[in-house]
Amino acid sequence: MLVQPPNADAQHTDIPDGRSFLGVPRYYRHSLTVLQRAVRSWNAHNHKHPMTAAVAPSAFVSTSDRSLLAVQAVVAEFDRFLDAYDFNAVGWSRDHPMAAAAGRFLDKRNPNTDKNNPSGLAGVARRFVMFNGAVCEAQLRWLDGN
């Protein structure tokens, strides 16, 4: 039986709560507390490799010490877990091969100039936006072996 591992998308930063591109509420400051509760629960249930994604909303992150502390706090919670957003266009330097491959992947699936815009995409295709990501090929091979 295939069991889906836990998944978390922590969008923590020290800014007021807001909304996503699609209008979904985002609770930025409170997300670290929720993540810490989730990690305690995963550990209590012996989840060894929950799939995770640690995201500080890049549109809001500044170069302030508070931004650095917010990112460090989230990374500290995820330091033992698999990053389910390893294949992405924004988490790598622009010249990194992973960012280039993710960009090509998006170009094939999202016709919008602004790749963060899901307009015109329907159903599951709405996931093909720049702020999303996925496990990479090496992680897929690892998951297939477990």
Automatic annotation (TrEMBL):
Q: What Gene3D superfamilies does the annotation carry?
A: 3.60.21.10
* GO MF entry, a single one: 2',3'-cyclic-nucleotide 2'-phosphodiesterase activity
Classify the source by domain of life. Eukaryota
Q: InterPro entries annotated for this entry?
A: Metallo-depent_PP-like
PANTHER family membership: MANGANESE-DEPENDENT ADP-RIBOSE_CDP-ALCOHOL DIPHOSPHATASE (PTHR16509:SF1), PTHR16509
| Name of the protein this chain belongs to | Uncharacterized protein
Source organism per entry reads Oryza rufipogon (Brownbeard rice)
